[in-house]
Amino acid sequence: VTERAAADLRRVVALAGGVGGAKLAHGLAALVGDRLTVIVNTGDDTERHGLLVMPDHDTVMYTLAGIANRQWGWGIEGETYNADEFLAKYGQETWFRLGDRDLATAMVRTARLRDGGRLTDVVRGLQRAHAVGPAILPMTDTPVRTEVRTDDGWLDFQEYFVHRRQEPAVHEVRFVGVDAARATPEVLDALATADVVVLAPSNPFVSVAPILAVAGVREALSDARGRGVSIGAVSGIIGGKALKGPADRMLTSLGHEGSALGVARLYAGFVDVFVIDRVDEALASAIEALGMRVVVTDTVMDDDPGRARLAGELLAAVDGATRTAA
Amino acid sequence: VTERAAADLRRVVALAGGVGGAKLAHGLAALVGDRLTVIVNTGDDTERHGLLVMPDHDTVMYTLAGIANRQWGWGIEGETYNADEFLAKYGQETWFRLGDRDLATAMVRTARLRDGGRLTDVVRGLQRAHAVGPAILPMTDTPVRTEVRTDDGWLDFQEYFVHRRQEPAVHEVRFVGVDAARATPEVLDALATADVVVLAPSNPFVSVAPILAVAGVREALSDARGRGVSIGAVSGIIGGKALKGPADRMLTSLGHEGSALGVARLYAGFVDVFVIDRVDEALASAIEALGMRVVVTDTVMDDDPGRARLAGELLAAVDGATRTAA
Questions:
Q1: Where are the alpha helices (H) located in chain A, listed in sequence order?
Q2: B92 contacts A105? CB cut-off 8 A
Q3: A-side interface with B, Cβ within 8 Å?
Q4: How many Å apart are CA B318 and CA B166, to the nearest integer?
Q5: ipTM entry
Q6: pLDDT in the model for residue B326
Q7: Scanning every residue of chain A, which has its alpha carbon at the shortest distance from the alpha carbon of B90?
Q8: Given a cut of 60, is residue B4 above it in pLDDT?
Q9: Range in A13-22, A69-78, B249-258 with the lowest mean pLDDT
Q10: Which of A50, A87, A89 is facing B110, going by the closest CB pair?
Q11: pLDDT-above-70 percentage for chain A
């Protein structure tokens, strides 16, 4: 059923952040190949040593290229850190660790942007070099930078996320530069021609929300729903805990319920199918009451088959919803 | 005698290019420590992957820091090339190989220049990070780029030197940007307070000549001689062959004698002491006829003691010339 459903789908678009997004994208790519387009968050991009580092884009790219570090989920398998050691010697801040190969990615990207390249074109070139089939599209070509307000004031996202290990409670989130940002033609085209749209199990506040905040994205999603496309989402919260990152703590510190239900409420109104983990089965009826169809399954993507299985169940449910609606 | 002479000297200034210059500088530093100042050629600097690479400066810096690759003379001992492999994958030209640590040097330099730093200040900071005692001064803070005219037309220096392995015959040399270049305050101060000035056994056309071509340098050398400072030079040509690089072939293709005498003629009029190798002893009287005092010794700097010995003989001879003149 899953395989046939996937084969029927023409275009799948996933909105994704970092590690969780990359894993789901990998599962989706295993099913639909380059009929998948991933729209990635650029709000946690950062300048390091004069280079543009794009953690979410690069994590998805390395994962789809099959070269991501399996244990960490980010970075490159077998990576070395010899440049980083020298950077530290030169007095550079190196709490954001960058491997030698990863720095090469940032170097080439930065050089091509300085030569006048457009962000989307530049990163598409990097993806092709890694023989990545699906398009990985930055949500916008202009800089957007996520900041979080803590008891220590507003912090750059990576200062909060990496340097302070997500320890300060987050009271507010903002996306600096988002007012000037526009969805790219590629993003709008992907959404306009999508048969299925899915939100990856990424942090709703700092991975998914920045994408939705870019002018044109919500309208395009709304248009897609208007023509019968369903939107699916996977909860990244399992038994009240985020598999990775601070989404569970951010839910509560931002005034929401720290559970899959809390995430579902954030997506109520534009998500049609919501996938939760078996351990959260008790939340299903409350989520259904929000107007969503609920799928209960194993949402931990331990290995490649696990990624493809979850992707398949998600696609089947969302596609089923599409057909029902149609 | 050598040790005492070295101890007496207050300030030694060396004009240097890459590997040969780095070796002599290393020998000089062993004798006079941070009373040595090295003025380096920047004409073979190059932009790679958006980063400013300074081969001569970095070779001298790594050599004085004791971390240079002993076999090659350039690069860093134990260097890795993982970023370079990725750069190639991304379609970057990688015939100019850059190690992971070396790229970190270029990254930090480029980032600090883009932040508004002055070249001399930026590289002095890098040198301090490596605990290098002697100051290594770029000849100027603005870009100068050496180009050579071959049968294939004008070539960037590194295109000729690295990519084409110095194979095309050189008919002409030019230093693009040198008209706008000025010697830095640090370079002028070093020359104004020098007790001894030496030209390293570097290529006269593409290592020493660019330094001499910068406005202010020849005048400062002339002023130094006016106050009784002698200038010494070491021939990089031994038995008609350059120890490294194309200096021997450039001598002949540019219309000079391909020998230490050919080099001496280029320096006649402002160099007081000329050091040649034992194998070239027969040239001594012809060089003396140019008005130079000639020192005949072993000029191959095989190891650290060899570097310090040559540096000591050079200093003793130049200092002796100074005292005789005074």
A1: 2-8, 19-32, 55-64, 82-89, 100-114, 119-129, 157-158, 185-192, 209-213, 217-226, 247-253, 260-267, 284-288, 304-325
A2: no
A3: 49-51, 79-80, 82-87, 89-92, 99-101, 103-105, 107-108, 110-111, 114-115, 125-126, 129-130
A4: 33
A5: 0.92
A6: 46
A7: A129
A8: no
A9: A69-78
A10: A50
A11: 96
CB A3 within 8 A of CB A277: no
The angle, 0 to 180 degrees and rounded to 10, between the axes of the packed helices B82-89 and A100-114 is: 40
Token duo for residue A199:
């939100």
Is B101 in contact with A107 (Cβ distance < 8 A)? Answer: no
A213 within 8 A of A247, measured Cβ to Cβ: no
**Segment B171-187 mean pLDDT:** 98
The beta-carbon neighbor of A108 closest among B49, B79, B100 is B49
Average pLDDT of the segment spanning B62-90: 94
CB pairs under 8 A between A and B: 100
Contact criterion met (CB < 8 Å) for A107 and B104: no
Whether B42 contacts B52, CB under 8 Å: no
Answer yes or no: is pLDDT of A326 > 50: no
CA dist B271 and B199 (Å) reads: 9
Residue with tokens 């130079």: B292
Pairing of strands B51-53, B241-242: unpaired
Q: For the segment A237-275, what is each residue's pLDDT rounded down to a tens digit?
A: 999 999 889 999 999 999 999 999 999 999 999 999 999
A114:B90 CB<8 A: no
CB contact under 8 A, A107 and B82: no
Residue B83 to residue A83, Cβ atoms within 8 A = yes
Residue-wise pLDDT for A12-63, tens only, equals: 999 999 889 999 999 999 999 999 999 999 999 999 999 999 999 999 999 9
Q: Are B25 and B14 in contact (CB under 8 A)?
A: yes
* Helices A185-192, A217-226: inter-axial angle, 10-degree rounding: 20
Structure tokens at B184: 């830095």
Helices (H), chain B: 2-8, 19-32, 55-64, 82-89, 100-114, 119-129, 157-158, 185-192, 209-213, 217-226, 247-253, 260-267, 284-288, 304-325
